[in-house]
Amino acid sequence: MSDLASHKAGLQGIDKEKVNQVIYEASKNSAFYLNEARKDEALNHKTEQLLKKYEALRRQDLSTFNNKVDNLVQAIERKRDLSRTIVHIDMDAYYASVEERDNPSLRGKPMAVGSNSMLSTSNYEARRYGVRSAMPGFIAKKLCPELIIVPCNFDKYHAVAKQIREVFARYDPNYTPMSLDEAYLDITEYLETTDKTPDEIVEQIRKEIHEETKLTASAGIAANMLLSKICSDFNKPNGQYRLPNNINDIMRFIRPLPVRKIPGIGRVTERILKAIDISTCGAILDNSVYLYRMFSSISFNFFIRAALGIGSTTVKSEYKRKSMSISRTFCNLSQPNELFAKLRELVDYLAADLAKEYLHGKTIALTFKSVSFKVTTRERSLKRYIYTADDLYHFGKQVSSI
DNA sequence: GGCCGTTAA
DNA sequence: TAGTTTAACGGCC
After folding, report:
1. A264: Cβ under 7 Å from strand B?
2. Which residue's alpha carbon is at the shortest distance from the C1' of B1?
3. What is the pLDDT of residues A286-314, one digit of tens each?
4. Across all residues in chain A, what is the average pLDDT?
5. Quick check: helix, strand or coil at residue A183?
6. What's the 3-state SS for A82-95?
7. For chain A, which end, N or C, has fewer CB atoms within 10 Å of the first or last residue's CB respectively?
8. Residue A99 neighbours by CB under 8 Å, 6+ apart
9. Predicted confidence (pLDDT) per residue in A106-158, tens digit
10. How far is the CA of A115 from the C1' of C2 (A)?
11. Tens digits of per-residue pLDDT, A156-211?
12. Which residues form the UmuC domain (predicted)?
């Protein structure tokens, strides 16, 4: 079950067995691990049910659906837009690279950014030991005792984000930032102002980023956001990859691609698809009738679009947030009064954050994580919008005790 | 509408 | 000894 994300950059060619063994030894008696095992069991059950459904379908004659599904696939295909040139740019080992830049004594050594309880990023030296983001520091230390863990310096990462966004804006003023270190650019218009090729322009963007921040970035260039994101991973670190806006090249690229490479398909969906013997995008297309019969139309559409290499081409800078939240892990507490005091602390912060953006909300949700890592949510839609700390506390308290 | 689970950075 | 935080979205009842 301990599941090393070896599809991530920098993790190829390591002794995965050994790494998993060390992680397992460090984890096996923990409440966290027990909870993961429980989730895993639930997933096994789900895949078994799905497999049964699949086997039942295989015994049926599905030819009556072939036409319908072909039409659906063709309708999706007709929406393919090859007119744009979309770039996905991703900074290499972002936080770790910033720290190495500012402290040369860290260079060449395995290091990670974060804390003993959680790592945000690791550099490539640390990745060779199996140390990766979203891994607790204390486990990383077992994999690599020499590992240096540097605390996060968010002010710095924000400052660098500002610098790289200035570069992005030169090529697409409507670029979409996805996080501090990642963005999509539509360079179609920019290309009309120059004789340079897309590859040359992206080399230039990465060069400017390097000159202005002393940090490297990787990039993918393709017809849409889905493909450019996948491509930005291809020549990481400090590289770029271009997939031409051409249906033959796209299909040759996407067919053999493992489904896990599709943004939105994670560990669980990969396992679900694997249960019905689908592990590549090509297999999604070859089994479209089964997917049609087994999944919702939203999921079916998502799978087919991805497997055809069709993605959004609308890169836009406006963003409307739909929710705002705050969460903290704290020492074990069980007395209602202690928990309400925590609630009060959190709503004070949340009210301040809401005020910064002049926001209010109509639904309040409270999430608890128990010592056994089980998560429960309680929520309520209210009659009016709220935003003050007192209201958040009042309704939060109410919701918590439904 | 309420709650759970998945994904991603 | 110890396993984060924030946001969005889909499925299911």
Report:
1. yes
2. A381
3. 999 999 999 999 999 999 999 999 999 99
4. 96
5. strand
6. CCCCEEEEEECCHH
7. C
8. A106, A111, A113, A150, A153
9. 999 999 999 999 999 999 999 999 999 999 999 999 999 999 999 999 999 99
10. 11
11. 999 999 999 999 999 999 999 999 999 999 999 999 999 999 999 999 999 999 99
12. 86-266
- Strand B proximity: list residues 158-197 of A with CB under 7 Å: 178-182
DSSP code for A224? S
Structure-block tokens of residue A200? 């040359």
Q: How many Å does it take to go from CA A297 to C1' C12?
A: 15
Protein residue with the closest CA to the C1' atom of nucleotide C12: A296
For strand C, is any atom closer than 7 Å to the CB of A328? yes
Tokens 């699949």 belong to residue = A54
Helices (H) and strands (E) in chain A, counts: 17, 10
Whether any strand B atom is under 7 angstroms from the Cβ of A371: the reply reads no
Question: Is strand C within 7 Å of residue A317 (CB)?
Answer: no
pLDDT digits (tens, 9 = 90+) for A349-383: 999 999 999 999 999 999 999 999 999 999 999 99
Q: Is A182 a catalytic residue?
A: yes
- Protein CA A25 to sugar C1' B3 (Å): 34
Which residue stretches of A276-356 are H helix? Answer: 281-286, 288-294, 297-307, 336-356
Q: Which amino acid is at A75?
A: A
- Considering only CA atoms, give the Rg of chain A: 24
A295 touches strand C (CB under 7 A): yes
CB contact set of A331 (below 8 Å; sequence gap of 6+): none
Q: Which residue is nearest to nucleotide C6 (CA to C1')?
A: A325
Nearest residue to nucleotide C3, by CA–C1' distance, is A136
Q: How large is the angle between the packed helices A63-78 and A297-307, nearest 10 degrees?
A: 60
What pairs with residue A90 in β-bridges? A182, A218
Distance C12 C1' – A135 CA (angstroms): 32
